[in-house]
Amino acid sequence: MKRAERLLDLLALLLNTRRPVPFSEIREAFPEDYGDCSEEAALRKFERDKADLTDLGIPLEYQAGDELSDEGYLIRRERYALPAVKLAPEELAMFFLAGVAALHLEASPFHDDLLLALNKISWAAGSREDAGRDFALPRSLGRVPQEGNPRLQEHLGALRRAIVARKSVTLSYHGFWRDEVSQRRVDPYGLVLRRGAWHLVAYCHTRRDIRVFLLERIRGLSVNPLKPKTPDFEFPEGLKLSERVAREPWEIRSHPPVRARIRFEPPVAEAAVAEFGHRACQVEQDGESRILELEVTSLDGLVPTVLWYRGRATPLSPPELCERVQAAWRRIGEEHA
């Protein structure tokens, strides 16, 4: 029996039973594949097939037996199939539009997967009775050429495979603050795209903490080649990748949180309040001016934001922020003198 056919039959066997299936029964069900060799050789062959199914995302697991239950292999149906998501035609159209826009992202590692998903959505939408005469999605999308940084494309592809296989990665990383390249062994948890830049969220064995790495600063990487079918780590329960990546430069985690107070003068005062929104811990009114208090983990990252308001924003505290903004204004004055 061909390998693909054997994997499909093995999947069908385990899905069509409610109890764990011992290897002895699996061997009897596939006499041409697992029955014409020694038990040790058959088990090795089955382990390779099991690893292939796991790589495809099939939740195949082994259950140890006890007095009340049998031992064997099984696929839990609640983990194998996700419940159907019902979207209104308008919601489906917006979802499709967002996906098409994502296809044009530079070096997206999920391009092929997204293209396949969008084509499935378009074909399913065409058969809906509630879509209406004016509702239509393209019946087929072609591959969008991926242009841009070849090194970024290579790194994104390698990291995507490492994340799926849960394999550790060694990075050559150019740090921003120390301006030097260092070697980091990390457990990659996921990739996040924020404001056009790709970030890697990973556990850093050097820092012994979860850190965020900007892909543009990765000079080279290598995935652990040992035991490629065996995961090196588990994804932390409850971890939300998007919450780990700073939305603003002053949210980059370069030091413990400090409170910064900035006075905004009219006519930008109200606009600044709206711009910072919920990130402002406190807003005080001082005549037509507004004083915002922020929790900051990168004072250096806050400096460009203050400068952007062109003299309409004045830092009040901490002293380190005031000094850095004054130094930045002096440098600007010297460069344009």
Overview of this protein structure:
- Strands 6-5-4-3-7 form a five-stranded antiparallel sheet.
- The protein has four domains: 3-80, Winged helix-like DNA-binding domain superfamily/Winged helix DNA-binding domain (Arc Repressor Mutant, subunit A, Orthogonal Bundle); 85-148; 150-245, SH3 type barrels, CATH 2.30.30; 258-335, 2-Layer Sandwich (Alpha-Beta Plaits).
- It is elongated, with a radius of gyration of 27 Å.
- It starts with a helix and ends with a helix.
- The protein is built from twelve helices and eleven strands.
- Strand 9 and strand 10 (289-296) form a beta hairpin.
- Helix content is 39%, strand content 22%.
- By secondary structure, the protein is an alpha+beta fold.
- Mean pLDDT is 82; it is low at 130-137.
- Helix 6 (89-103) packs antiparallel against helix 7 (111-126) and helix 11 (299-308) packs across helix 12 (319-335).
- The longest helix is centred in the first third of the chain and has 17 residues, at 39-55.
* SSE succession: HHHHEEHHHHEEEEEHEHEEHEH
β-sheet strand percentage: 15-25%
Cα distance spanning the termini:
80 Å
Q: How many distinct domains?
A: 4
Largest sheet: 5 strands, antiparallel
Q: Indicate the CATH topology of the largest domain.
A: SH3 type barrels
What structural category do the secondary elements indicate?
alpha+beta
Low-confidence stretches: 130-137
Q: Outline, from the CA principal axes?
A: elongated
Strands side by side in the biggest sheet = 6-5-4-3-7
Rg for CA atoms: 27 Å
CATH architecture of the largest domain: Roll
Helix share, percent: 25-40%
Q: What do the pLDDT scores average to?
A: 82
Text of the CATH class of the largest domain: Mainly Beta
Task: Figure out the total of helices.
Answer: 12
